[in-house]
Amino acid sequence: MSINSGAVATGSHRAASPDISQSFLFRSPHDGWLWADGLEDVSDRVRASTPSELAGQVQRLLDARQGTQQVPCLVGALPFQGMASARLFLPGRMIRDASSLPMALPQDLRWPAPRSAGRSLPAEDGYCARVAAALDEIAAGQYSKVVLARALTLEFDAPVPVAGMIAALAERYPQAFLFAVPQANRQGVFLGASPELLLRRRNGWVDSNPLAGSVPCHPQAAEDRAQAEALLASDKNRREHALVSERVADVLSGYCDQLSVPDEPSLIRTGTLWHLSTAIRGRLRDPSVSSVELAAALHPTPAVCGHPTGAARQAISRLEGFDRGLYAGMVGWCDHTGDGEWAVSLRCADLAGAFLTLYAGAGIVAGSDPVEELAETATKMRTVLGALGLTLRAEAA
User: Fold this and answer.
1) Of 365, 397, 349, residue with least CA distance to 156
2) Is 196 among the catalytic positions?
3) Which residue in 80, 233, 345, 369 is a FRET match for 360, CA 20 to 30 A apart?
4) Which of 40, 53, 124, 145 is catalytic?
């Protein structure tokens, strides 16, 4: 793996700001920015094991704020598995639906330099071996899809500024779900720019936009379009996508009396990848069901776990070799009416001082190629690395 660095400048914003590393930030392409600070950590008070229990615990916290001067909204992130690393907060103050942040972000910033090429877990050759092992298990009928991820940790010669990272991600990826979540004990920030909407609930209607099946973007327009069209026609990628979109539709059909699901996937382009996309929309049968319950019922989708879920989870625990934490979880907010928006926590990293740990995975199905899947993880990591002016090339030994 090689990393090339270059300085990058961010745009200018207003002056003076609170400690952004202790704020919760979420930017939606639908509703703009949400900013919250004065955060009361309630992670230990939300420990339910089912979506309905989780929603009930959240609702009780929010009901207690009704009729007071406190903000009746929950913000934060849930992990890929379990609740041990959940980060959930009740804000002391909050601005929602804002067109821009109510705080300063740095101007003309120069990044610290990475000290080495970084440490990948598993190593590149080890990742390819794990993909090969998963393909053997798929051929044996243990499961039909599994998402295998890896983590890359970089050390810089000085702390990486959190506000600078947020500014660079916001400028570089204007259509992404951008997020920043404080970690426990002031041990850094979990941040990223996700392309994928897990669940949006507004006035009794719900939307989800599962993405699965991808190819890298190409700098030449003609080649870029050819790669996108090849993705749309790819049997392997369409099978991978169908596993995700069909499960999302199946879960939401249990909550909705109307559900619109396109017959065919469409193409969506992010900063580094083309994806197969299905935009699903429904009307809730019971308008009291909250966005937290709906999102938790969907999570984890086959886009971040695999199919069937139980067997894929076991394969991930057996093959991956690290704790995902908040990566491949869900991040967003829910208010006292049940409205809210939750993105899949992808294209993300943990930032703690001079250490940055990036996460990316690839969906493995019959027909996957280990070297191509490794390259896909490197492409996905470029979302965060590109904001730092860094490039990454994966090399399988």
Assistant:
1) 349
2) yes
3) 233
4) 145
